[in-house]
Amino acid sequence: MRRYLLLGALLVLAYFSYIAVSLMLLPPVAELKNRKVNLAIQVKDWQGKYHDLLIGPKNRQWTSGGSIPAEMKWAVILAEDANFYRHEGVDVKALKNAIKHDLEKKSFARGASTITQQLAKNIYLSREKTVTRKLKELYLALRMEQELTKGRIMELYLNVVELGPMVYGVGHASRYYFGKHPSELTPREASFLAAMLPGPRVAYNPYRNMDKVLKRSDMILRLLRSKGVLSEEEYGAAIAATPNINGLQRKVDASLKEPEQFGNMSSSSHVNGEKPLEGEKVVEGESATKGSEPSPPPQEGKGAEEPAAAK
Fold first, then answer.
1. Can you give the pTM of this predicted structure?
2. Dihedral angle sign, alpha carbons of residues 208, 55, 174, 297
């Protein structure tokens, strides 16, 4: 029995040693403070092939935080991470509930990832559902919150989220679905895009499940009204509107046939669609000048908890 206990202890020690080394080898996040930085990451298309995606101002679809409507930011916050301005990267209460739920279900059914955690995963990590990957995600999220402002985290997040077939970021999505610049998004259109975030490929794919997307969009609009982001008049107009996404079938088909639209945006291109090593990227850029900070959403900051009052 003692031998087995010793072996178990050694295995546990080896695992934690592996975790410690893995965390130390994770890429630095401080470089993300530079608003001129350009990172080349890898994303998977709907056919399972990997492509370069450039994160930064050299990507023609990049949208600065100041060009993204406050309604878009708050739609995402209220739908994905209501405690975004309260936590320091990890929502401890939500995480505890998720762990309890997953232990009961004996699966990774609920992740409880904050916006910061999702950003860390999208930029640096794989999509595998393992304890090791989750620990890396938590560690990176905590580091991001130490190095970056909430506004910068939102700017990065809203430029990397998947919102369609090879459609990443609200800049690309607003043009893809609505044919307009993201600064022109209406509250209904903003809530429509936010509604897709949990599963743009299947569950909340507007072509396959339009009713489901609209139902979630309505819920998000109600949250925007209850939190004072929208006035009663703005809410009424938004809830009565129907997103105009004519030609979506044609767009989806075209995107699936031409995944190379992203092209080789950097010297880090990986041939034959092979997956890169976790965290591999290319960094370019110079220090951002003062005054380049984007306009924040209402009451942005560590202590900001609620949107501005209704108009």
1. 0.77
2. positive
